[in-house]
Design a protein that fits this description.
The protein has a two-stranded antiparallel sheet. The protein has one domain. With 174 residues, it is mainly alpha-helical.
Length: 174
Amino acid sequence: MAVTCTYSKAEDQFRKLMGILSALFLIGAVLFIFAPDGVVRVINFVAKISPTTRAPIVSLISVDKYNDVFYQGVNMPVGARLPSHGMYVALAVAFMVLVTVMSGLIFYDQRKYSQLAWLLIIGKAASGLTGLGYYLWSYHYLANLMVPITDLPIALVMLIFYLRAKGSAPAVTA
């Protein structure tokens, strides 16, 4: 008589959460690739309540304004090209793709890949705390505040679901 194991209720809930998050992370990666300024514009639209909370759209900052803000009078050669925000978009997309794959693997086989949850939790907590730090001590933009508003609860929910799943006994059916 063959014995097959199925997921406990807590394991299945954790698995389903990872599937939902995987889809959301993929959407985030696509938005960061194809509409990085659009994401900031949407957040700025919401931030119209207080003009000081709107973040600048980096691709729209003029060379002179960029120099005034970031180089504080350092002379750049004529015709020098300024770095775009492409580096930050590339890093954000890479992180979103990584968390998409890790959460997708957990969804695929929760027992085999559940240890990846620690990397997801640490990554989301780190990005949330970094965004909170930028908001509190540097740039008071709603865009910076959105990072901890989204990532810290995601990290907490993942931690709770992970610990519940790890503490549950697997259901065994004959």
